[in-house]
């Protein structure tokens, strides 16, 4: 796969940020969960106060600061599948971040949402808690389809809050 200049620069910046000390106890590639009314929002930590927000209603994923994305919620690390799935290397995660930042696909509540993208980056496989069998669910907040669509439409093109 040949990388463009933009992708190469993005990769270099992300690798540089990886060398900077981690704030708040987060590590590169951590899945961060934000409780919202009726659903959870997920993002990937990329370091140095830059937060890779992986929710998109168009084709671009957004990068924003933790303070902007968290709103009134308390962000928590949600690497729930670490014992069940292999965590990918930083280089693999960065390659996916660069690729998905160019086009993370059209949003779909059941097939391409923020949790799918976050788990794809961390584990190399899209996972959505709602698709797990009843006895496998880990007590996550349940999403309300109507609430999620309403927020999506209200914030089209803007980071989810």
From TrEMBL:
Could you list the residue ranges that cross the membrane?
none
- Pfam families recorded for this chain? LRAT
Q: Where does the LRAT domain lie? A: 31-130
Kindly list the GO CC terms recorded for this protein.
cytoplasm
What biological processes does GO assign it? N-acylphosphatidylethanolamine metabolic process
Signal peptide residues are 1-24
Keyword annotations: Hydrolase, Lipid metabolism, Signal, Transferase
Which taxonomic lineage does the organism of this UniProt entry have?
Answer: Eukaryota, Metazoa, Chordata, Craniata, Vertebrata
Its name, as the record gives it, is: LRAT domain-containing protein
Q: What family name appears in the similarity comment?
A: Belongs to the H-rev107 family.
Show the segment(s) annotated as Disordered. Answer: 140-161
Cite the PANTHER family for this sequence: HRAS-LIKE SUPPRESSOR - RELATED, HYPOTHETICAL LOC794087
| PROSITE patterns in alphabetical order | LRAT
Listed GO MF terms: N-acyltransferase activity; phospholipase A1 activity; phospholipase A2 activity
Q: Taxonomically, which superkingdom?
A: Eukaryota
InterPro entries for this protein: H-rev107_PLA/AT (IPR051496), LRAT_dom (IPR007053)
